[in-house]
Design a protein that fits this description.
mainly alpha; disordered N terminus; about 150 residues
């Protein structure tokens, strides 16, 4: 039986399954801190594009109509507050409706146990072929363009 691919990525490092539930709280905190710093740096790099967009779309007009004019700014702030409260109320109503509708319903079912027959059916093989493949430590499967198994070594 030929040697199987050792599942290494483009950089030559092994592929990692991301499982934060297996990390300690400290590891998750450091990961979150580094991710936050990365996003802040990314946003800082995009700041010149935001400035160009502001020039194109007229930030000066915003300043003259909203900030310098007291009548327009209070009317705008009142409208924004009313819209925010209405959107929040609609969200709360929808959440309460879903809570009342599904509070005692658990539609999640555990998966059926995987039998050799079901595995053979999903692979498009018979049970004897699957049993033979399960006896080996390493198996190389070759697939056709439709994803069907055409060879097993």
């Amino acid at each position: 039986m030929p040697k199987a691919n050792n599942q290494r990525g483009a950089a030559g490092l092994p592929r990692i399954i991301h499982r934060p539930d297996l990390q300690s709280r400290r590891q998750r905190s450091v990961f979150a801190l580094l991710a936050g710093i990365g996003w802040l740096l990314w946003l800082y790099l995009l700041l010149p594009l935001a400035t160009i967009g502001g020039w194109i779309f007229g930030v000066g007009r915003f300043e003259s109509y909203v900030i310098d004019s007291q009548d327009h700014s209070w009317a705008s702030l009142t409208l924004y507050a009313v819209i925010t409260v209405l959107a929040g109320a609609m969200l709360l109503v929808w959440a309460f409706y879903n809570y009342r509708r599904f509070r005692h319903v658990d539609r999640r079912q555990p998966a059926l146990p995987l039998t050799p027959e079901r595995l053979a059916l999903s692979f498009g093989m018979n049970s004897d072929q699957v049993a033979a493949l399960q006896r080996h430590r390493r198996v190389t499967l070759t697939h056709d363009a439709q994803g069907n198994i055409i060879e097993a070594r």
